[in-house]
Design a protein that fits this description.
heterodimer; A: 292 residues; MetI-like fold; B: two-stranded antiparallel ribbon; 4% strand
Amino acid sequence: MSKLITWLRQRASLQAWLLLLPSALWLFIFFIAPLFIVLVYSFLERGTYGGVVWHFTLENYRRVFDPLYLKTFWRSFYIAVLTTVFTLVLGYPLAYYIATRPQRQRGTWVLGLMIPFWTNFLVRTYAWLTLLRTHTGLINLTLMHLGWIHKPLPLFGNDTAIIIGLVYGWLPDMVLPIYATLERLDRSLLEAAMDLYASGPKVFARVIWPLSLPGVVAGSMLVFIPSLGAFVTPAILGGGKALMIGNIISNQFLAAHDWPFGSALSFVMMAVMLVATLVYFRVTSDEERRQL
Amino acid sequence: MSEQALSRALSRRSQLARLKKQVSDLLFHAYGFWGYLFLYFPIIILVVFSFNDSRSTAQWAGFTTHWYADMLKDHQIILSLWNSLFVAIVSTTVSVIIGTLAALAMERYRFWGKLMMDAVLYLPIIIPDIAMAIMLLIFFDISGIGFEPWKVNFFGAHLAVPYSVIIGHVAFNISFVAVVVRARLAQMDQVLEEAAQDLYADPWRTFWRVTFPMLLPGILGGALLAFTLSMDDFVITFFTSGAGFNTLPVRVFGMIKKGVTPKINAVSTLMLLFSLMLVAISLILSRGGEKGDSSGNPMF
């Protein structure tokens, strides 16, 4: 026994793999293997009653580029980009606001940001449903009651509703990394810029913005990827009409029983995300990423 | 220019600068106020209308706790709550144990295949949940394992939880636990462990007497994160459960699809309180650790 232990101790690699064994097994069986199965499925033909026929085809990928589905892809992309832009425009000043509070208060402000974020995503989306609904939503009812509008605003069942829901859902993901870079910003650099008579906007454009860029890029990634793959938000706020790629994928599994096509759609979606991730690694250095 | 005129001009200039600063400060505070209002307004409205004495979720008609009574009488909701708790407890336990072991391997060893394991551990975090959900659905469908239920008596509630749901939850939780525990390990001082070894403590003893107590905040932080993610998950549960099994979020989604009622507001408020409780626990835990150290706290 003690010989075995000595033998083991000399082999660090083996020890490491013994520690890793349970999670490696779990992830290879229940994550990596399913990933490959989906890849294989995306090249097969659909069976008549769900399932697949083992016959190689590229048809599923050709169908992804059908105008009908391409349009949904494009729309999801555009919704994800707009969501990222809006969270950035709303979130940057908020991050700046938190970073400029007295040091002892900052923790509380960050906590204030996290509490809504900790609330179940479904619950937060539902909250917006009760606000945005066309005839029975709080916003339209209030505005009509005040006499500011006479017809309800089209706030529900369209891209606007989805973007509002996504911006609300992912805003903290944008604010936190930006806050992290702003908080670490060297104040003496700002003083130096001001001593050299740089105006406020110039200090921002030349010093603050470039130094906070790693946070901006990281935040944009954290918002863009889940927005592109959104499923719950369009399912609830899209009112069954406005759909995104996540809903088309789920339909292939829950309603259309076209698993190979659903698999191909998810692979194309993941490819777009992979490109975004590679861009992220390209524009940031190791050092910058570690700071977040 | 006389000295007086100069000082007057200067003081006017500084007054103007001060006024400018005051205005911009005011605007800035206003922005902060509106920003936080945007974050809290929908949630406040949601809670307020859970007490509304009408079926409307937007027009106030007096106070009632009727919807809460309704919720407590709904066996489906209560059952789904037990299901959620059971899945969260089991998947958290499993993922914390094997995720912590993985973190130790990744942070304390150099070994063949480390880069690959790094990628395998990060993938479940960045992959969108809809993709992971359909991957697991296909896997369970063709392997034929997983959909059979685990029949269990859980505090008097008779549950039938598909193994597939628990397997799926563990699969995404391992990575989150590993990340949190690794972060804690990375900034732990190894001096104490070396000291223990110098004093002839064997590795086993060193681990339990030195490493583990220091690592504990990280492990608890990871556990809390895993528990929350598991309680909150809708998409992966929805796709891997097969028909007839509901966790609380799956149940709520079904209710929303059928139509908006204040009863959903009541269930949402309950879930909100639950999240607040977890935040409070995590705060207490990080207070209990080293002062000013939030490393064991993945939420911040």
